[in-house]
Specification:
alpha+beta; 3-stranded antiparallel sheet; 5 strands; Retrovirus-related Pol polyprotein from transposon RE1
Length: 199
């Protein structure tokens, strides 16, 4: 895929994959290289959601799944010179963004949660992961395991150690980890993560 035509996003906007996806069954060894993407993602963010989406179908992939996997490779090829730029800063404020789709997995109806944490303006950890349980509401999808954690957070808020703020959907940086986005939104959020051409 060295001479492939690069694409601007790792996953086409609106793509949903299913184990019942149309297409001819293929040998799952084609997908083994996808696990290596997760190692690359330690250094470059932006395609965590796509890798997670395709990885769910590694046991019985079809040509439709392979098409999405190849698109991720084409995206990586086009952004080979991109990485996270870390600036020197005296800003040591810890800021986190978290979001969840709601029942986005067609097969299991489980939600995908994404998060990113910044120290100042630099993203230092992020993840995109399918939740282990089915949630019955968007509120539940975004606030699971609430019992002990709720009381801990409530105490932190009352001590003014933590401040919770609502973030509008268009400014929700964690969206890049929960769904396939249109190019303009993807580019804006990727830049917000500090990803840029480093050459």
């Amino acid at each position: 895929m060295v001479n492939c035509m690069p694409v601007s996003t790792p996953v086409e906007c609106g793509v949903k994959l299913s184990s019942r996806q149309e297409g001819k069954k293929i040998n799952s060894t084609y997908f083994k290289s996808l696990w290596k993407f997760e190692i690359l993602d330690l250094y470059k963010t932006g395609y965590s959601f796509g890798v997670g989406l395709v990885s769910r179908h590694m046991e019985a992939p079809t040509t439709s799944h392979l098409k999405v996997a190849k698109r991720i490779l084409r995206y990586i090829q086009g952004t080979i010179d991109h990485g996270i730029f870390y600036k020197s800063s005296q800003d040591f404020e810890l800021v986190g963004y978290c979001d969840s789709d709601w029942a986005g997995d067609i097969d299991s109806r489980k939600s995908t949660t994404g998060f990113v944490y910044f120290m100042g303006s630099s993203a230092f950890t992020w993840n995109s992961k399918k939740q282990p349980i089915v949630t019955l509401s968007t509120c539940e999808a975004e606030s699971k395991h609430i019992d002990r954690k709720y009381h801990f957070i409530r105490d932190c808020i009352s001590k003014k150690e933590v401040k919770l703020e609502y973030v509008k959907s268009q400014d929700q940086i964690a969206d890049i980890f929960t769904k396939a986005l249109k190019f303009d939104s993807f580019k804006k959020l990727r830049f917000s993560l500090g990803v840029m051409n480093l050459v």
